Amino acid sequence: MATEFRLPELGENIKAGDLVRVLVSEGDSVDRDQPVLELETDKATIEVPSPVRGIIQQIYVKDGEKIKVGQLIFTVNGDAEAASAGAPAGTGGETAQASPSAAPAAVPQPAPPGSGPEPPRAPNEVVELPRRAVPSAAVAAAPSVRRIARELGVEIGQITGTGPGGRISEEDVRRFVGEGGAGELVSPAFAAAASLPDFEKWGAIERKPMSQIRLKTAEHLSRAWATIPQVTQFDEADITQLEDLRGNYAKRVEAAGGKLTVTAIAVKVAASALRVFPNFATSFDGARSEIVYKKYCHIGVAVDTDRGLLVPIIRDADRKGITEIAKDLAALAEKARNRKLAPEEMEGGVFTITNLGGIGGTNFSPIVNFPEAAILGISRSKTEPTYVRGQIEPRLKLPLSLSYDHRLIDGADAARFLRWIVEALEQPFLLAL
Amino acid sequence: MTSTSNETELAVVGAGPGGYAAAFLAADLGMKVALIDPEANPGGVCLYRGCIPSKALLHVAKVISESKHAAEWGVKFSSPEIDLDRVRGWKDEVVQKLTGGLGQLSKQRSVRYIRGTASFLDANTLSIHNSEGADEKLTARHVILATGSRPASIPGVPQKTPNVLDSTTALDLPCVPKTLLVVGGGYIGLELGTVYAALGSKVSVVEMTDGLLPGADRDLVSILAKRLEKAFVSIMLNSKVAEMSETRQGVKVKFEGAAGASSEQKFDKVLISVGRIPNSRLQGLDKTRVTVNSRGYIQVNPARQTADPAIYAIGDVAGEPLLAHKASHEGRTAVEAVAGHRVAFEPRAIPAVIFTDPEIAWCGLTETEAQRENRPVKVARFPWAASGRALTLGRTDGVTKLILDPDSEQILGVGICGPNAGDLIAEGVLAVEMVASAKDLELTIHPHPTLSETIMQAAEVFFGTSTDVYRPKRA
């Protein structure tokens, strides 16, 4: 009896590929696990092993052809044994999972639904493993790295290693996950939850469901943390003079319906800085090996609400004056606290500012707001004795921290960017120049 | 009616190194675990009838053999007197101590140890016939099969005679036969042959293929073969046993050689060591969805789950290589899978060790495999004649070699022949698993003077900059 060999599923994201070469001909005898196709997918070139043994009757595909998962590749005479060990010929997918080093693996099927009044959390749950054409043991990665990849749902064979000789590091895996390589993204925040200890051993606990905002924040920040190799640069601005100006103009801005805060001024300064340093208004597109430069200047401002962290966006901050920004900011913050913020009012940011100065603290390292390139953190200003032309003077210092995507921005540029912001805050008239 | 005590989260069938490792980890993860085995304590073949007793006896053999060599270093011993009962007693003490310790560890972890044999009523229900003759029913959410393997035999061998031994009965040390034929030149035959030769038997080996230790690289085997040719009376390659019959003077064996010539010899005892076969014929296995392949191994996916989602299989019964350390690792993988983790058994390297004198150990890719797969590799060899430590041990016939990827210079495999190769190989396994390069090994400081230096020195040989081996540069 002829057995059909159809292109098995090779990975979560692989639906089709270009057939580089058929490695066998009609009339050849083929062994189980023998490579029969060389297939180029968007991830990698892989060898597809035969799940069956026998003599090849007819080949239905040609070199260079684009073939899809499930497509008939060839028929084999004999060997009904392999087909019965795996799935029925036709679905084919399962049998490709066999690792070449081990005996062909039979792939368990979940129990047929309705086969009994089983509880929803059946103990017989099949452990889903990523289907792979390249066994991960053949990949240049340490055991701990291979384990992390598996936990994150990544086929490690698809990752390009950056270490010596193509060795794959944990960072390579995390970067791949961030670029959407994982079949089904299990964010590290949630993957870790699976291995929590039984806290009740040590005392009473209470469990509460996460709010939607908390869940989204966790997902978003896990992605940002896993994706972006980030560095934080610290600096401080002498804002003694700025504080005087702020006092002088506060009334005027208040009359216009805003509040002349350090944050509002920082938004204006950052918008101007982004025009001078366009590489801080970018996004990293690893999949296309491109950098996305944004010609618009929408700036997000982190707002602490009783429901969690929200980041409303000030549109076109570069084309607005400080008064207008202050007005916008007051309105958005009000909306955020009253749960009136529309989703589109939190989208499209190029750069984010987060000011924890109202609460306190000397410094902190914010997480870059994916997919932006950098974030500016502001802490509480304080008066410090400072040498000014040989004399000790009380000066008001504002601590600043800039976290940035090191893939896009070099350390020296980050230092220059933050210096520029410091100088703008110290001599506000520079903004006008 | 089943009482609640007869329900468990995990039942592990078989308490060898795979089974007890699985049961203990499951208990440590907070599962309710039952461990089922016919022996009084956990241990399995490895502790009762395999690795451990054979190593105890090989240690005795080593002492005897070194006492002979000591004459070359100016220390002369008279030939040893062997008190076989004491040798056996010492070996049994070692086994008792270890298995008893495992029994203690089971208790401390609240693993329910059931002495008995299990059969399936369905995928989640076992019927256990215990050592007191009673039957009990045990319901388990998951079952791990770790039933191991047993010695294989060959057709035409007289059954039930004290003169034909397998690895189990040979380890019982019934006597020291004047003549012993070892059928099968694999590691079990050579290790036990070494023990009996040291105790005074005239040992002959017959092997079907053209070399000892099929599968191992020839350059490593040839070093051992040279020593064994002296320790054994004869090593017949390309030969097999055609007929075997019991006589009053022992066992009469007719051989068939490669050339077609046949000869006949008599031996006091014959040891059959032609491999092992998996214990996959559990009663009631047909009531589950577990599948067994043509060679008798239970088929599993990378998480060691069988075609029946409630049942996992690990160790010898789940496929080659049949090694204790592979089983333990699989046991831990299976338990993590049961606990809901995404795991897979996918080592880059599983070490293999032959505890003869000298020892042979390797891991990862062998030269033989590379040739068979037409895979280009580079091989760097460091001969132990250049190792200070080997000289001080009077053992300069060893070798350490690295098998490397020619482009990335990553370590794909390591092979060692020499005393303590089994301990030395661990560094090789780590190197392969961590994808270390020859540079990594060369730049890692190794203690002097030790045999472990030979690994670093082999890496130096790879770069042509060995301190201890001079190779003139090619023009």
Helix content of chain B: 25-40%
Give the tally of β-strands of chain B: 21
| Domain module count of chain B | 3
SS summary, helix count of chain B? 13
CATH class of the largest domain in chain B: Alpha Beta
Short summary of the structure?
The complex is a heterodimer of chains A (433) and B (475). Chain A has 433 residues and is of the alpha+beta class.
Outline the structure in words.
- The complex is a heterodimer of chains A (433) and B (475).
- Chain A is of the alpha+beta class and 433 residues long.
- Chain A folds into three domains: 2-97, RNA polymerase II/Efflux pump adaptor protein, barrel-sandwich hybrid domain (OB fold (Dihydrolipoamide Acetyltransferase, E2P), Beta Barrel), CATH 2.40.50.100; 136-195 and 209-214, Dihydrolipoamide Transferase (Irregular); 228-432, Chloramphenicol acetyltransferase-like domain (Chloramphenicol Acetyltransferase, 2-Layer Sandwich), CATH 3.30.559.10.
- Chain A has ten helices and 19 strands.
- Chain A has helices at residues 81-85, 143-151, 170-178, 188-193, 212-227, 240-256, 262-276, 322-337, 411-426, 429-432, and strands at residues 2-6, 16-22, 29-30, 35-40, 45-49, 54-59, 66-68, 72-77, 230-238, 282-285, 290-293, 299-301, 303-305, 308-310, 313-314, 351-355, 374-378, 382-388, 391-405.
- In chain A, strands 9, 12, 15, 16, 17, 18 and 19 form a seven-stranded mixed beta sheet that branches. In chain A, strands 1-8-6-3 form a four-stranded antiparallel beta sheet, with no helix packed on it. Chain A has a four-stranded antiparallel beta sheet with strand order 5-4-2-7, with no helix packed on it.
- In chain A, helix 7 packs across helix 8 (322-337) and helix 7 (262-276) crosses helix 9.
- Chain B is α/β, with parallel strands linked by helices and 475 residues long.
- Chain B has three domains: 4-150 and 277-338, FAD/NAD(P)-binding domain (3-Layer(bba) Sandwich), CATH 3.50.50.60; 164-274, FAD/NAD(P)-binding domain (3-Layer(bba) Sandwich), CATH 3.50.50.60; 352-463, FAD/NAD-linked reductase, C-terminal dimerisation domain (Enolase-like, domain 1), CATH 3.30.390.30.
- Chain B is built from 13 helices and 21 strands.
- Chain B has helices spanning 17-28, 44-49, 51-69, 84-108, 167-171, 187-199, 218-231, 324-338, 367-372, 388-392, 421-433, 438-442, 453-463, and strands spanning 7-13, 33-37, 112-122, 125-130, 135-145, 149-151, 164-165, 179-183, 202-206, 234-236, 240-247, 250-256, 262-267, 269-272, 276-278, 311-313, 352-354, 359-364, 378-383, 399-404, 411-418.
- A five-stranded mixed beta barrel of chain B has the order 1-2-3-4-5. In chain B, strands 7-14-8-9-10 form a five-stranded parallel beta sheet.
- In chain B, strand 17 and strand 18 (359-364) form a beta hairpin.
- Chain B is globular.
- The relative contact order of chain B is 0.11.
- The mean pLDDT of chain B is 94.
- The A-B interface holds A 81, 85, 97, 99, 102-111, 123-130, 135-138, 140-143, 146-147, 150-151, 153, 163-167, 194-195, 198 and B 30, 123-124, 141-142, 289, 291, 293-295, 297, 299-303, 305-310, 319, 337, 340-344, 346-348, 405, 407-410, 433-435, 437, 439.
